[in-house]
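Reading group handout, session on sequence-to-structure problems. Before we discuss, look at one worked example. The prompt was deliberately terse, the way you'd type it at a terminal:

> structure Glycosyl hydrolase

The input record follows.
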Amino acid sequence: MPLPLPSSPPLRFGANYVPSSGWFYGALDRAAADAVRRDFEDLAGIGLDHVRVFPIWPWIQPNRSLIRQAPIDDLLGLIDLAAEFELSVSVDLIQGHLSSFDFLPSWVLTWHRRSLFTDPEVRAGLVAYVDRLAREVATRANVFAVTLGNEVNNLYPANPTTPEASTAWAAELIDAARAAAPRLLTLHSLYDATWYEPGHPFHPADNVELGDLTTVHSWVFNGVSALDGPLGPATVTHADYLVELAAATSADPTRPVWLQEVGAPRPDIPEHDAPEFVRRMLGDVIANPALWGVTWWCSHDLDRSLADFPEREYDLGLFTVDHVAKPVARELAAVIREHRRPTGRRPALVCEVDLRAEPERRGEVAPGSAFHTAWVRRRRTGPLAIVTAARAGDTAYLDARGIDTVLPPC
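And the output record:
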């Protein structure tokens, strides 16, 4: 007889915080407290419980031996304002990459050009930075996590690396953050090339072995929406598919997966389809027992007076720059009110690819692959796990993941 499923903790719902005024450039002038309060009031008002925030690395550490206290104090003030609205906070450390721009200090650029991932002096500077910032934010009770940085693999290939160097780099910084702030979750953040591109130098094993839980970022402009349109099954289940890949890749069957970024980008998801996309996508991924929480990208739209962003970046917010709740915000709020965590078991589709051991085969599980197509087809009848061939006969493992039936690959 299968073991009873362990009780699941409540799902977390939050937003990646993009200020409604001035984007992240507002930090250069110390954002007005009342403006930040208004932003956080918007988010708390639709039932969100956390925000993910993004201090800009080169503004805090403009020289390898200089870490400025003033922007750190501004960050702590931001965290305190979130606490006023009972919002807990996750802090990304190395920004790094944001909305198609890379923010890097001059001491790794121009005549000083050297790779973040391989140069020993740069890595020493980053250890000092991560140590300092993690210690500072851990003084605030409403901070629950630090992430090394936002999609740090976007900083490749401008910063050359190898799989071995990428793993060592992340492990070193995670160790530094844990030592500095042992009560916080410490996380690694990578965009989906690590799951889908065979030659990418950041490997799936890093996602599921480094840090305290796995993070995934689901963006349907990666080609998924081209398979079957804005409301097609491949599009609306992509978030669930990534969470499942992560769960199946981990050696720990109980390791949680945080959907740390998901959004409704135009033109892939037209404005009139966005609320339905939100409801269907969240309905599917919430059924996944591995899911820790969902953090929407992003809180507020980007002011169109700011130039040179990709067109889709301007309209990703839950709220306009004038604090009007958009249809996606109202739909998200309804899902938060109405959702229930699943209690039943589900079947699993066997995947012949073990992403931890065979990263060179990542293309075989990428969107549009034979495996992905088979999973999407079967997923239409209800929740569907993924299990590697090596684990398909491991009864204890299957029980821990709530899997009652193993389906052969198609």
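Points for discussion. First: The domain at 12-343 is CATH 3.20.20.80 (TIM Barrel). Second: The two ends are 28 Å apart (CA to CA).
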